[in-house]
Amino acid sequence: MVERMLQFVSVPQEMPQKRDADARRRDFAEIYKNFALKQAERQASRCSQCGVPFCSVHCPLGNNIPDWLMLTAEGRLEEAYAVSSATNSFPEICGRVCPQDRLCEGNCVIQKGFESVTIGAVEKFVTENAFAEGWVKPRLPRVELAQSVAIIGAGPAGLAAAERLRARGYQVHVYDRHDRIGGLLVYGIPSFKLEKDIIARRHDLLVRQGIQFHLKTEIGEGEGRISFAALRDQHDAVFIATGVYQSRDIALPGAARAGVIQALAYLTESNKRGYHDVPDTETTLHARDRRVVVIGGGDTAMDCVRTAIRQGAASVTCLYRRDRVNMPGSAQEVRNAEEEGVTFSWLTTPVEFIGAQQIEAIKVQAMRLGGIGPTGRRDVEPVPGDVQQIQADLVILALGFEPEDLRADWRVPELGVTHWGTVQTRPGQYETNLEGIFAGGDIVRGASLVVWAIRDGQEAAESMHAYLKARDAAESHAAAAMMKKRRVGE
Known about the structure:
Blueprint: H1 21-24, H2 37-44, H3 54-57, H4 65-73, H5 77-87, H6 91-97, H7 119-133, E1 148-152, H8 156-167, E2 171-175, H9 184-187, H10 196-209, E3 212-214, E4 218-219, E5 225-226, H11 228-234, E6 237-240, E7 246-247, E8 260-262, H12 263-274, E9 291-295, H13 299-310, E10 315-319, H14 331-339, E11 343-345, E12 348-354, E13 361-372, E14 378-391, E15 394-397, E16 401-402, H15 406-409, E17 437-439, H16 442-445, H17 450-489
Parallel strand pairs: 1-2, 1-6, 2-3, 4-5, 6-17, 8-15, 9-10, 9-15, 10-11
Antiparallel strand pairs: 7-16, 12-13, 13-14
């Protein structure tokens, strides 16, 4: 092992080849190419195999990263995939969209004197190689169980739960209001980060596994919908994995003017254009030849600025009220955006949207960093007298997301929610205050990362299995007791 591993002292970090920025601006294809075999082996060999693997500790899924890195370095790729996929239902997705610089790679111990292991790129290589070799197969159950579960939402949390429950033999039904599975993986994340055939390929596997999908299906009251009460009657347990889709608004003068739009609406339409679901004549949410300003500093803001570049915007500026160091989005995404022509205006916040009917400019206030606030992040305060205007034809608000009011929409006022509106669950159990109703993903933890949603889905599946198993045992015991009582009576 020593000869194969710990090569970080002699082997430099090497990322997969990145497409030229000029070429990237012209299409929505993924920007990184895949590793070749020898590259993947060499980069995996840089792992230090440390006694306490901080990469695994800081992975929400607890992936056994050093193990599959060692297997990759030794050319044992089928075993590497088996180890990788044992803890992760969708490694092909995490290898592409996880912010590794904030999670596993950001906590790699060798980065103190050397650059970290390229964990995400190796994970992507291992998984794509497994698909190419035919090693990725649906996890078919050994026995079929009569009990059925309903999963509301076909995003990463719902799909992860569905995959795990179906592998145990449950009859799994997934309900989603969209016409494709994936949730924000399909309609929120642009193709240059996650090409949509990756989701379609996984959809095929899940169908072959025996999961039944009910797409274009709304939950609630009214014609063409399935009521939540009916869903509870039809299934033995329900998992709520709707995510959070309510965009946060901004309470500033002029915010209602035409041309001030929400990030999710913008990204959804852009992704639907990739499916040819939106006619070319529809340009309200298109950035072509427009001066675009995106407000926000998270990964959604990065998706918006880079999408606008590809749509042919005249200029793209990102406003963020803190500095680069305190930005919540991926540092790698910021670098990619800058390469592609995005301008960042740090320590800047909007105070007014200007224009007659259509947005024409934004009045912005310069900010400065203050002390550490109660959240652990540095506060910001305005710089007196430093106000300017930025010209804009299209303003995209990327300020985060909040949960929809499920209690009102589904007419289930007894469902427990927090003061943020997220669904309340028992700590570590994923069960709500309602019998047999579970929840996980963003609808419980708030807007978060895909990898956290996958973890929630996988763990919720285990909680649901324990619940269904216990209920089945109780029912069997009750039935046996009743039979015994009848026999005594005879």
